[in-house]
Amino acid sequence: METSSSTGKMAVGFIGAMLMAFAFFCLSEGGEDPDIEVVWLVAGVLSLIGAGFAVVIMWRRVAK
Question: Which of 4, 7, 20, 24 is geometrically suited to a Cys-Cys bond with 43, CB 3.0 to 4.6 A?
Fold first, then answer.
């Protein structure tokens, strides 16, 4: 049974992963965008938060 809060937390991780993929695409295209480091930082933080929430949610389900 998914609660809206766990779905939102997973969405944060998903958005982070999409941002990281976007940043990687921009770097692979050879673009010299000075803001790309900010995108990498935000994407990394969101991905870590989302992964942490996913681990906690899975651990709670296993523990039941």
Answer: 20
CA atoms of 40 and 52, how far apart (whole Å):
18
Q: Which pair of structure tokens corresponds to residue 23?
A: 């940043």
**Six-digit token pair at 47?**
């991905």
> 26-40: per-residue pLDDT in tens?
666 665 666 667 777
Burial degree of 46 (CB within 10 A; 0-12, 13-18, 19+): buried
